[in-house]
Amino acid sequence: MAASPTAGVPVCIDDFEAIAKSTLPAATWGYYTSGANDEDTLRDNREAFRKYKLRPRILRDVSKVNTTTTILGKKARTPLCVAPCAMHELAHPDGEIGTSKGQPIYQKQPLFISTEDINGSIVNQPKMAVADLGSVMILSTYSTKALEKVIAANSNPDTHYWFQLYVYKERGISEKLVRRAEAAGFEALVLTVDAPVLGRRLLDARNRFNPPPYIRLENFIEGSATGDGTLDKSESETFGETFGNRGDAGLTWEEGIAWLRSITKLPIILKGVLTAEDTELAVKYGCAGVIVSNHGGRQLDGVLATIDALPEVVEAANGRIEVYMDGGVRKGTDIIKALALGARAVFIARPILYGLAYNGEAGAKLALKILQDELESGMALSGCRDINDINESLIHFPGHQPQPRRLGYYPSKL
Ligand SMILES: Cc1cc2nc3c(=O)[nH]c(=O)nc-3n(C[C@H](O)[C@H](O)[C@H](O)COP(=O)(O)O)c2cc1C
Ligand SMILES: CCCCCCC(=O)C(=O)O
């Protein structure tokens, strides 16, 4: 990993991370950064990308690179998307509205971002040609800004909002969230299925992490799950117990997914799928897509890195539903590798939190911008003019004969 500065303007996601580490309160940093138990999966998510080497092509006129794609049939200007994360306000008061507005709007003119570095100097970043972002933001149920406010803050017609859902024992709470998301214009529901209980995050336990009292889960202010919008937990409960006491750990395919489908017409995406078997069930139960995710290594420690689990899921989906991934994506070449292995789109979580921590909305924008720039330069350097040029032939596995194939299919049936 390249050395990261602890001061100055970040030029890559690792820089944002180093700055966040040195500026956020220790308990917030711990909550954001940590994984479950030994953090094997957390580490593997990043490390596993290194195994996949690229096979670039040359002399292919990459003077213009196009990252436009479709996600759930809607135009998106890039496959780089934002994963759901609880409590963005822990990073910065702009919270999820900052993230939402931080989706840069496509402009033909170069954008000059003025931003303050952590020493207080104003820094212009004239090198920035504008990111052509306009993709998907998934908002967490546990956002600190109400879902209606977050979607209203958007001014980019190419940005699509999906709402992430946890299903509660008291189903009325989840149903009310679904109704509000539908009314506000969210285009899909993302059901997180890898968290029937919260993973054992040792750093949080050691830090006795509890969100500070100013943190309000605004989606619940009217919804009664948490009363007045604070976490409303008893002193004797841990953070994980609060989560577990409300959530429905008894959720099943037969009852839970059928129930959700019965109350909404919105497409349902399952987040936290890692196997071919569950992909097959997702198709059977009418889901529109799956996100290959291990919750950023925060749930079951010891599961496969997501980039390693992706091919199995893509193969099982066999083009019937869309397959996305998240986990450990920190560089443009990580995005390229995930697309080459069959992901339709790639989601990032911690990089957004670190961007927000750096400078609110402008910081989130800068983090997205850097990743988008890296995606575009990585494509040019790989000989890919268009997002559809990214296929499995870009990936080198020792002893493996690559086959060109279409995005979303694995292995090639072409
Ligand atoms: C601080 C934090 C909070 C998260 N909150 C949620 C959440 O509310 N709902 C959810 O489905 N996933 C949540 N996740 C998991 C992310 O959506 C995502 O799966 C994972 O973090 C991706 O890995 P990355 O952080 O390496 O990009 C959270 C992750 C972090 C780091
Ligand atoms: C009581 C709030 C719990 C938020 C949990 C969010 C989450 O999924 C995470 O990984 O953290």
From TrEMBL:
- List the top taxonomic levels of the source: Eukaryota, Fungi, Fungi incertae sedis, Zoopagomycota, Kickxellomycotina
The cofactor named in the record is: FMN
Give Gene Ontology CC terms.
peroxisomal matrix
Q: What class of enzyme is it?
A: oxidoreductase
Write out the catalytic residues in the record.
H295 (proton acceptor)
- The answer on whether this UniProt entry bears the keyword Secreted reads no
Cite the PANTHER family for this sequence. 2-HYDROXYACID OXIDASE 2, S -2-HYDROXY-ACID OXIDASE-RELATED
Keywords, comma-separated and alphabetical:
Flavoprotein, FMN, Oxidoreductase
Q: Where does glyoxylate bind?
A: Y31, Y166, R201, H295, R298
Where is FMN annotated to bind?
P84, C85, A86, S140, Q164, T192, K271, S293, D326, G327, G328, V329, R330
Which superkingdom?
Eukaryota
Q: What is the name of the gene encoding this protein?
A: HAO1_2
Its Enzyme Commission number(s) read 1.1.3.15
Q: Does the keyword Protein biosynthesis apply?
A: no
**One record GO biological process:** fatty acid alpha-oxidation
Source species of the chain: Mycoemilia scoparia
Q: Where is the FMN hydroxy acid dehydrogenase domain?
A: 5-400
From the Swiss-Prot or TrEMBL record, give the protein name.
Hydroxyacid oxidase 1
Cross-referenced CDD domains, in alphabetical order?
alpha_hydroxyacid_oxid_FMN
Enumerate the InterPro entries for this protein.
Answer: Aldolase_TIM, Alpha-hydoxy_acid_DH_FMN, FMN-dep_DH, FMN_HAD, FMN_hydac_DH_AS
Family of this protein: Belongs to the FMN-dependent alpha-hydroxy acid dehydrogenase family.
Gene Ontology terms for molecular function: (S)-2-hydroxy-acid oxidase activity; FMN binding
